[in-house]
Amino acid sequence: MFTDYLTGILSILVGVIQLWKVRKLHKVIYLTGAYFILVGIVDLADALSPSWNLSGTPGGVALRLLTIAMLVVLLVVFYKEQRAPKGNKQDGPGNQDGPGDA
Fold it and tell me: pTM above the 0.90 mark?
């Protein structure tokens, strides 16, 4: 079906874009980019050869476990980023002493 091919191609495209353009934002982007490429390859292989039935094999189970692990890693990274201090709030532009401040 067309959507199977589209899902695989888009997953690979997202992974390549992450590795090529967005990698400067955070180190976890390398991991997510590689993950999307892997998922895209598996989706395309499943679409090109339906007789393989990749989602019902131990490899499909491993891919699901890898997906769960990726989500946990991303949640931990997101949580740490949100909890990290954003710098000294007193250094903001609204907190500078002006000429009339004592």
Answer: no
